[in-house]
Predict the structure.
Amino acid sequence: MKTVFFLLLGVCLALSSPLFAQQSQPLVQEFDNGLINWTEQYVEASGFTIIDRVKYPNERQAVELARKGALAVARANLLEITQKVQVYRNTTVVNLVTDSDTVRSRVAGVISNALPVGKAKVDSDAVTVTIRMPLYGSNSLASAMQPVVRSKIVKTDTQTAPGAEMRSSKSPDLGEVSSLPVDQNRYVLQFKDGKFTPSLFPVMMDEEGNLLFDYSSTYQDILGNNVQYVNMASDLAHDLNWQKGVELIDAVQGSDGVIRVKTSKKAGFKRFLDGAAKVGRWVLPILTLL
């Protein structure tokens, strides 16, 4: 079966509905020692170390030293997986880390703050530790990467986009955020070619190459989880297509990682993006048609 991707935009999308819960799955990239969960928005890695009871006859000491060793391995694995995260357009973390000691330091700082998932698992001969790092929010990968991305954006770019200028460090007016209309149209971007790669800061252009939205320019920790990627069953996509207030918009993602949409007859969609940019909030669930 050919895969088709759907991207839904709109603060009123009922992602907690029974229909959605029954027919959706997390969008997860799996690796040998961990994963990137784009739905629940974290990077997770595990590491283990053999318990050396010969060198450390004291059982408690042997287990504790193995736990520390497993934590160090888990952090190394977390770094390896994190480097594969697509950050902006087709740029990954490893591309940025390779070019800058500052970026390397930022990433290392976030990884050092990764939290354990439950207690260490102690088997008869080894200890396993699992840790997680958030993609968005406080002490997240997005927080570490946003200044880097913004500094690399070409200053001579004359394209104009909603929210394209850097936002000040002043906290947004949360009343303004909550005043976004909750009963307006929702937008479904359908990727008919079946190709889509999630990124921390999605970039969207229209069919003429005009920049419509750059999430790196509006992302703010205080607004919480604004980007969400989810796997969706085909029946849900069909039902959404017939819901009142839902509009389908064709989209493709190029090799440069940019999402290009056909908006020539979608003035409401442009107004939606403009309003989202003004308050720094872009609700962006990516639904993958299974």
